[in-house]
Design brief:
Elements lengths: L21 H12 L3 E5 L6 H12 L4 E6 L11 H14 L9 H11 L8 H14 L4 E6 L8 H15 L9 E6 L34 H15 L5 H12 L3 H15 L8 H4 L2 H13 L3 H12 L1 H11 L12 H8 L3 E4 L2 E4 L2 H16 L6 H5 L5 E2 L2 E2 L1 H16 L4 H20 L3 E5 L8 E8 L2 E9 L3 H17 L4 E7 L8 E7 L2 E7 L1
Length: 527
């Protein structure tokens, strides 16, 4: 059986198509070589486990590597000190075939601890045993623990970290691990946020070095993976183009990269519209995969949805950022921003908050718009009359704009200026989404998303439509908007675009008109 694209658990080179992460591994090994303790904290399904397994394989020639996975421990294992040390030592013993440099005395003590012998019933005894191992070993010893998040709810784990910290501080006097790597979503340095006890206000892991290594997948790396696939399947795809599209939409988020590829390979190829792999691995096939992805439920999206429920301030911030076009500056220590970054919702660029990738952004838009649409009579006619906007299988964007102007003026013409300025973009997206649903995609250009300007790109059956939304601020500002749209159309190699102005001048002329600007046709609409 040939390799497949994998989105479940870790990736294995012999079974799965993978992006080469050798450069990432070299950077992490450099931290290990320096003897650093650190947390590999990244959002869910960001390739942490795959990276750890590859790192373990790389380190084994130079180090003794103790690699554990706390998913293998039950909640009962963390309830008492004795339970923890028995389970911890038992996990090491289960991996003993992979560890070839363990002193006999240490092995005997670990067996005693795992069996619950009375003389071995303290956490301090386990740490002394591990210290003895580090002292006697011919090679330096590395400890790697994956999936530490669940353990962070238990005081015994904090005590374990505190004792590791103590050994680290006294490493010139006591033998200890050369390097310790903990992996999870949470930054262990911030565990103090989860406890209110006064004696736990200080982080037990404040010795950790910053882990600033980029774990997103590069466009070149994605292209390399697709090249491997192409050698097996001979689709004739334009590798650089498809890799570029995948990276633009995902920003290299590992799960999303693999999921799109898996959908192309297993869902799009062989469908009615794309009968074989050659038809599927095209731009149109890619957009079809994106449509499937945005409408499916998967473990990553479910996790993100739950975070919006668990952290209302996170949801409010994202709604303000996306629907209201607010500029949100990065403020160190802001809990909402820290949570959003930790869970992978956002990135910080030039001290400003941005949603981390186009897939997340569109899905968040869809979710927020769905909540608003259920209470909005604006959509009633759109849903029932959506077929009028499709002619010969293509979207009639001119008619979409014309009807939007009519509906908007009828329903919202009497609303105050601030309401329309804040909600104009969401009203247009509410109007547009049911029309293109099932056949088209849309996304909002983050670089133009402000109260004064928003660019929306609509992909429908192979055609792209560029729509700019802006608040009217006079003729001069309007001419600048036209020029910006012309430049944007040029970059997309599109001959015509659409400009919607929300004009609050009482003497405004509502309606639409075609205008030619520097060889581009622009439909200008005023509402």
């Amino acid at each position: 059986m040939g390799r497949i694209f994998n989105v479940s658990a870790d990736c294995k080179p012999k079974l799965h198509y993978m992006v080469n992460i050798d450069d990432r591994l070299r950077q992490i090994k450099n931290m290990v070589d320096k003897g650093q303790y650190f947390t590999m904290n990244r959002a869910r399904q960001y390739g942490k486990t795959t990276t750890l397994h590859a790192l373990e394989h790389l380190l084994k020639s130079e180090y003794v590597v103790i690699s554990l996975d706390f998913q293998m421990l039950s909640a009962e294992s963390f309830k008492t000190e004795r339970n923890f040390i028995e389970s911890f030592s038992g996990e090491i013993l289960d991996r003993i075939e992979d560890i070839h440099d363990i002193p006999e005395e240490v092995l005997t003590e670990l067996e005693g601890i795992s069996h619950g012998s009375r003389q071995y019933g303290k956490l301090s005894v386990l740490l002394r045993c591990l210290s003895k191992w580090c002292c006697f070993s011919a090679k330096k010893v590395i400890l790697i623990i994956d999936e530490v998040d669940g353990a962070s709810n238990y005081p015994v784990f904090l005590d374990f970290l505190a004792q590791l910290r103590g050994y680290y501080i006294a490493r010139d006097k006591k033998a200890t691990f050369h390097s310790v790597i903990l992996a999870g979503v949470y930054d262990i340095k911030n565990l103090k946020d989860k406890f209110v006890d006064e004696h736990r206000l200080n982080s037990p892991w404040n010795i950790a070095a910053d882990f600033d290594i980029d774990m997103s997948l590069t466009e070149a790396g994605i292209a390399g993976m697709l090249q491997d696939y192409e050698q097996d399947h001979h689709t004739g795809m334009k590798i650089e183009e498809i890799a570029g599209l995948i990276h633009v939409y995902t920003s290299g988020y590992p799960f999303l990269v693999s999921r799109i590829c898996k959908l192309l390979d297993e869902k799009v190829a062989g469908s009615k519209e794309f009968p074989d792999e050659k038809a599927a691995w095209t731009k149109d096939g890619f957009l079809a995969a994106v449509r499937i992805l945005l409408t499916e439920e998967n473990t990553l999206f479910e996790s993100l949805d739950n975070k919006l429920i668990d952290y209302p301030e996170l949801k409010q911030m994202l709604e303000e950022l996306l629907l209201d076009g607010r500029t949100i500056e990065y403020v160190p220590g802001d809990i909402g921003i820290r949570v959003a970054s930790m869970f992978g919702f956002i990135t910080i660029e030039n001290q400003l908050v941005n949603v981390s990738n186009r897939i997340f952004e569109t899905r968040l838009y869809n979710g927020f718009l769905a909540e608003r649409s259920r209470q909005n009579k604006f959509l009633q006619n759109v849903v029932t009359e959506k077929n009028q906007f499709i002619a010969a299988g293509q979207l009639d964007m001119e008619l979409v704009i014309q009807k939007f102007v009519d509906y908007y003026s009828d329903i919202f013409g009497t609303y105050n200026e601030q309401f329309l300025e804040d909600h104009g973009r969401s009203l247009f997206l509410l109007y547009l989404k049911p029309i293109i649903n099932g056949r088209g995609n849309y996304y909002v250009e983050a670089r133009t998303r402000s109260n004064r300007r928003t660019d929306i790109v609509v992909d429908y059956c192979g055609q792209q439509h560029i729509v700019e939304l802006k608040v009217w601020h006079g003729e001069e500002y309007n001419r600048k908007g036209e020029q910006q749209l012309v430049d944007y159309l040029e970059s997309y190699h599109v001959k015509q675009g659409y400009l919607i102005s929300f004009n609050f001048n009482k003497k405004k002329e509502i309606g639409v008109r075609w205008k030619e600007v520097e060889g581009k046709r622009i439909l200008e609409a005023v509402v």
